[in-house]
Each structure stands twice: as C-alpha cells, then as structure tokens.
C-alpha cells in the first residue's frame, strides 16, 4: 500500500493517462497531419508533444502550484504559427478523462488558448538540488511516435534532486507484462487492442504496471525485473536511432557478455519499463558524442521504475544518475541499467569495450 506521495502518485497517473489519450489521437493521424516542426537542435516536435505538455502542466499547477517544473517543450513556435497553435488548442480543449471525478482532480479543462500557451511556458525551471521539481517529457521518443512505433509520456517528481515518484505511459507496449519484447515498428494504427500500459514507482515502495485505458484507473500490480540466470540468454534493449546510442559498441559488449540474442531496438523510456517488468533484461545507452548531455526528463521516471523493480541504473562510469545538477544529466555519461545481481558484470564489459578501465 502506498503511504508516502499517494496524492502525487494519483495525480501523476491521471495526468499521464489524460495526456496519453491526447497523444493517441495524434498517433492515428498520418505523418503530415501530426503537425511536425523541427526544433533548433533539428529534433522533431508535434502537436501531440505540445498538447500533452499543456495538459500535464495544467494538472500540476492545479494541484501543486508551488512546485517547479522542468519540461521539454515551450510555446514560442505556437505563438508564431497560429494554425499550429489552433490545432494544439483543439486537442487540448477536447481531451478529457471519461471519469468525471478524475477529471475534476486534475482541475478540469484549460479555459482558453492563451492559458494554454502560458501553461506550456511553465516548464522552464532550471531544476537543481533543492526542493520539489516535476520533470515532464510529453512525448519521449518523438521519432518513434512518428515512425508508428514505441513512445512514452513521462512524468517524475524530484525532491532535493532525488526521484520520489515516476510514471511512464506507454500507449503502444503490450498490456501483458509477460508478452515477448518485439520492435513493434509500424503498428497497426487505430487498433489499440491489448496495447497501452502505465508504469509507476514511488521511492521505497516498489514499481507497478497497469493497463493504460480510457476509463477509471485500474489497480496497479507489482512488477519485478527477471532474475538473469544465464547471461547468454539475456535480452538487451537499445535505441532505434543510431545517433542516440552507439549500436556497434553495444554489439561488442553483448558479445563480451556472451549474449547470443540480437538486441531489441525500441524508442523512448519504454525500454526502462520493459526491463522493469522482465520483458527484457538490460538497457544500454552509449554516448555517441562527447558534447550531448542527456536530459533529466528522458530518464527520471525510468530510472526510479527500474530501481524499484530490483534493478540498478548507473552511467558508463558506474555513477548513479544525478538529477540534481540542472535540466541535464551534466555529470553523467550514458546509461547502464540491469538487474542488481548482474549490474557489475555488465558494467565491467561496458567499461572494457569503451576503454574506461583503469
Ligand atoms: N545525440 C543524442 N544522444 C542521445 N540522446 C539523444 C540525442 N539526441 C536526442 N536524444 C534524445 O533521445 C531521446 C530518445 O531516445 P531513444 O532514441 O532511446 O528513444 C529523445 O528524448 C531525444 O531527444 P529529443 O526529444 O530532443 O529528440
Ligand atoms: Mg525524450
Ligand atoms: Mg519529448
Ligand atoms: Mg523531443
């Protein structure tokens, strides 16, 4: 039974559920209809990212008005492009939870388009090691979202730099925790049957999974990483995008560990959720450049969910991910997530291949 952070967890689950309803509507549209624009760093953002972020911030502002928010997106593009703005507004205005009580807990509808733009800009906190900070990735794995594959709606609460609550909504993962891990690219659009899962964790209270539906929240059930008895049967997950994680180094590490199965490539923090429920075993994220700093919203929820399911998450140097240094994981490099019992063995192989051994 959840005792600490019960209210934060409930609001986070409902906020992610509502945002995921919005993203699902956009997911069904063709690539052109997703309203994709390119950001300054050349990464894509869609009407789904903007709409989901506005809904989540609205729920947080209603319930926790004093907390800081670190979110990926902001409204400047929408202030210039009124057509895009109006499409986002249409989605935000029309997306509600069917459970009226739950919708009320989130504070109900965003009143108008200007409030929506104002909400979208409320995620620019610099983060840091003091106080309560929510971090939001409204669509994690936008490239997967555009490709018709995996993506996640991610929300986490940090307190003094430590992750206390994490929720991941994965609309395209199988509901069934024991379903085999597949790449799921080019999913049949409009057929959500058997798909959609909400992962959650509270520090010290374990990790759960439940169906991500449209109605009243289902009860969560505990999930655990799979005990890895024989490394050669391990299933490891990595990014689809070769630019996000070094796939050739990952292959060398797998070989060193004696892993015989090919890696499963999927976008987003769906990888963290998948290993937390034992559908996969190991998640490696290996830097492709010295200059890229991982963002806290790309890892906070997944990090806690994996650790609460019996895993260990470090960077390639063996340090825990430090969410207290700002909007990025500036003091970390890459990610190594594995069941606690084998993490040091995996880290050893990672460090040998990357030449990090002293
Ligand atoms: N060079 C990079 N290295 C690692 N991750 C990156 C890089 N560029 C973008 N990302 C981020 O990786 C995340 C997706 O990871 P994955 O490939 O595992 O699904 C996205 O949030 C994406 O950010 P963005 O949202 O700005 O596109
Ligand atoms: Mg992301
Ligand atoms: Mg994103
Ligand atoms: Mg992005």
UniProtKB/TrEMBL annotation:
Molecular function GO labels: 3'(2'),5'-bisphosphate nucleotidase activity; metal ion binding
The EC number(s) this enzyme carries: 3.1.3.7
Positions annotated to bind Mg(2+): 72, 137, 139-140, 298
Keyword Metal-binding (UniProt): yes
Catalytic activity as recorded in UniProt: adenosine 2',5'-bisphosphate + H2O = AMP + phosphate; 3'-phosphoadenylyl sulfate + H2O = adenosine 5'-phosphosulfate + phosphate; adenosine 3',5'-bisphosphate + H2O = AMP + phosphate
Protein's UniProt keywords contain Repeat: no
GO BP: inositol phosphate metabolic process; phosphatidylinositol phosphate biosynthetic process; sulfate assimilation; tRNA decay
Role of this protein: Converts adenosine 3'-phosphate 5'-phosphosulfate (PAPS) to adenosine 5'-phosphosulfate (APS) and 3'(2')-phosphoadenosine 5'-phosphate (PAP) to AMP.
Entry similarity comment: Belongs to the inositol monophosphatase superfamily.
Matches recorded under NCBIfam families: bisphos_HAL2 (TIGR01330)
Name of this protein: 3'(2'),5'-bisphosphate nucleotidase
């Amino acid at each position: 039974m959840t005792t600490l952070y019960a209210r934060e967890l409930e609001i986070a689950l409902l906020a992610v559920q509502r945002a995921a309803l919005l993203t699902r509507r956009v997911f069904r549209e063709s690539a052109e209809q997703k309203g994709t624009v390119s950001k300054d760093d050349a990464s894509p953002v869609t009407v789904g990212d903007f709409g989901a972020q506005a809904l989540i911030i609205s729920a947080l502002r209603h319930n926790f008005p004093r907390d800081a928010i670190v979110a990926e997106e902001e409204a400047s593009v929408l202030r210039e492009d009124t057509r895009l703005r109006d499409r986002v507004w249409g989605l935000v205005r029309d997306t509600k939870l069917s459970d009226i009580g739950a919708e009320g807990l989130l504070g109900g509808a965003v009143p108008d388009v200007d409030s929506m733009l104002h909400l979208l800009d409320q995620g620019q906190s610099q983060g840091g090691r003091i106080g309560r900070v929510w971090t939001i990735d409204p669509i994690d794995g936008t490239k997967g979202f555009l490709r018709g594959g995996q993506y996640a709606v991610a929300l986490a609460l940090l307190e003094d730099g430590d992750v206390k609550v994490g929720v991941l909504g994965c609309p395209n993962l199988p509901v069934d925790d024991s379903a085999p891990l597949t790449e799921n690219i080019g999913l049949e659009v409009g057929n959500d049957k058997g798909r959609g899962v909400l992962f959650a964790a509270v520090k010290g209270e374990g990790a759960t999974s439940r169906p991500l539906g449209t109605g009243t929240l289902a009860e969560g059930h505990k999930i655990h990483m799979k005990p890895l008895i024989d490394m050669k049967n391990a299933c490891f997950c990595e990014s689809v995008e070769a630019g996000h994680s070094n796939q050739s180094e990952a292959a060398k590490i797998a070989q060193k560990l004696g892993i015989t199965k090919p890696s499963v490539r999927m976008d987003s923090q769906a990888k963290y959720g998948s290993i937390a429920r034992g559908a996969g075993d190991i998640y490696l994220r290996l830097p492709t450049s010295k200059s890229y700093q991982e963002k806290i919203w790309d890892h906070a929820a997944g990090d806690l969910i994996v650790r609460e399911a019996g895993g260990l998450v470090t960077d390639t140097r063996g340090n825990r991910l430090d969410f207290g240094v700002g909007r990025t994981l500036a003091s970390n490099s890459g990610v190594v997530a594995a069941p606690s019992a084998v993490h040091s063995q995996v880290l050893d192989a990672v460090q040998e291949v990357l030449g990090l051994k002293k």
